[in-house]
Predict the structure.
Amino acid sequence: MVSLGSRVLFVAWIISNLLPVRDCPDGARRRAERASGRLVAEWCAAPDGVKEGPEVSYHPNGARVAIVHFSHGVLDGPAEYSLNDRTIWRREQYRDGETILEWNNPAVASLSGDQLTALGAGRCGGTIVCAPGDRRSVCRSRPTRLPRPTVVRLVDGTTAYGRYDHGFRSGEWLFRNEQGNLIKRATFSRGALNSRYWEWYSDGAPKTEGRFVLGRKSGTWRSWRTDGAVTEAHY
């Protein structure tokens, strides 16, 4: 249970980070997508196209659909989703593809499905919100051909092997430590953790096992201490 004070700090911090795309992180540059002359999305990406920094998408009337943040193609940081009348209906905080905090507007929860549709409430397709009339390529039909896998060296010295799709970390990824030992196996859907998840200690002993559903832990999770003792948590 998150305390009220933590929630207040979370909301204050998330608002301070929800700014339009102006400056991109070092090594990334601003990119934009237009449809029929209208700006539908802008984001930051590394030279290889991997999302790095904020991304903003827009309703047909120019109001913001969502603003999210990425690190190495993974959702990492604050996210905010709005209706076409600029009402905020959801806020989230991600850490390395996992949802660690979320807030849903109770006023929006009382609206009917028809009312939400009229206000441009979007559908989530693997954490990406596609609003009615959304012209982004990621919200249209997607190619079935999978991109080639790649090897990425992360700042903590580990290496990751998997695929990026439209700049998002997608599908199964394998993570190895500096000695080459497998220490994590995870699946991503458009930058969020999804499906089965495993972690191992450097000697190969199991550490964590569970399942994510679009960034959220789900079902039974097991954790092993170094002495082999097992604990369980249910989500």
User: Anything to note?
Assistant: Residues 150-234 form one domain.
